Amino acid sequence: MTETTRRDEIAAGLAGVEARIAEACRAAGRAREELTLVAVTKTYPASDVRHLAALGVRDVGENRDQEAAPKAGDCADLGLVWHFIGQLQTNKARSVVRYADVVHSVDRLRLVSALGAEAVRAGREITCLVQVALDDDPARGGARPQDVPAVADAVAAAEGLRLGGVMAVAPLGEEPARAFAKLRRIAQAVQDAHPGARIVSAGMSGDLGEAVANGATHLRIGTALLGHRKPFVR
Q1: CATH label of the domain that carries residue 161
Q2: Model-level pTM?
Q3: Which residues lie closer than 8 Å to 167 by C-beta, 6 or more apart?
Q4: What pLDDT digit, counting tens, does each position of 166-183 carry?
C-alpha cells in the first residue's frame, strides 16, 4: 500500500468516525466540542500517526510502553497529546512519564506513588485518570468502585500529578449503556469531591454512541479509525 493510499484510507476512517460522533451528539443533545477523540494507534506505525496529525487529530493513545516510547519519540515534532491507556506496571512509570501527557489506567495507590515520583524526577505534571473496574475481571485492570475515592484522593494530593477524572472499559457481555451509566455516577462522585476532575474516558469503536449518551468526554477509537491490521511492534 502506498502512503497516499494509506492517507486516503485513514481520512475515510476519520470521516466515518466523525459522522458517528456527530450523530451521537445530536441524539444526546451535546456539542461536538465537548468530546475529545483519542486515536488509538497501538500496532500501527508512526507513519499512521503522522497521517492523523495532518488530518487534524491531536490526541493519540497507546497501551504498551515498549511500542509507545519509540513511536512518541519518532513523532515528537508533531506537538501531540499522548495518552497512555493500557495497564501499567510500576516499573514502567519512569519511561511512561517521559512522553505521556495523560495516563488513563491509574488503579492503585502504589502506581500513584510511582508515577508521582517519576513525574517530579522528570520535571513534568501528568494528568491521571482513575480506571474504574466495572466487572470482576482483574485481568482488565481498574479499581473497584468502592476504592475509587481513595485512589482519586491520592492522585489529587501527589506532587507531579493532576487528577483529570475517570476511565473505564465496558465489560464484555454487558450492555454498554448500563455500564457507562454506572461510570457516570462514579465520575460525578469524583467530580463532587474534586471539581476539576471533569474527564470521563469511555467508549471505543463499538460503543461510542452509548458512551456519548452517558457523559463521556474522551473517546478511545482505534479500529473504526485505522482499520484491522496485522500486529505491528516497533
Answers
A1: 3.20.20.10
A2: 0.95
A3: 85, 104, 105, 129, 130, 131, 132, 199, 200, 201, 202, 218
A4: 999 999 888 999 999 999
